Amino acid sequence: MPEAQRLGEILRQERERKGITLEQAAEDTRIRERFLAALESGDHRSLPGAVYTKGFLRNYADYLDLSSAELLGGLAMQVFWILVGIGIFSLVWRRAIRRYSAVGN
């Protein structure tokens, strides 16, 4: 998802600009390194639930002196589009099942 990657790029660039390693950031924030890496790469599938992810993003942004409110706004838009995508998939899936069921009867 492009928006997730953009968000991750902002985090990674700021961390690198400050000369902080991912390992050091994990130690300082007490967020597992694999979750920080997932945030930076935009890999939302490797992150835990939304509540944890929101907390990780807020803490990591604050650690990097970034505006967590702006970043969380971007995360909210990501979640919206994911839900829209799921909704569209669900609608198409239900219609396909109905059509298949009607043909089979």
Question: How are the SSEs placed, and which strands pair?
Answer:
Elements: H1 2-17, H2 22-29, H3 33-41, H4 50-63, H5 68-104
Helix pairs in contact: 1-3, 4-5
Question: Overview of this structure, please?
Answer:
With 105 residues, the protein is mostly helical. The chain has one domain: lambda repressor-like DNA-binding domains (434 Repressor (Amino-terminal Domain), Orthogonal Bundle). It contains 5 helices and no strands. It starts with a helix and ends with a helix.
Task: Flag low-confidence runs.
Answer: none
**Radius of gyration, taken over Cα atoms and rounded to an integer in Å:** 18 Å
CATH architecture designation: Orthogonal Bundle
CATH superfamily: lambda repressor-like DNA-binding domains
Mean pLDDT: 78
Overall domain count = 1
CATH class: Mainly Alpha
In short:
This protein is mainly α and 105 residues long. It has 5 helices and no strands.
Protein traits:
mainly alpha, 5 helices, 434 Repressor (Amino-terminal Domain), about 100 residues, single chain, about 80% helix
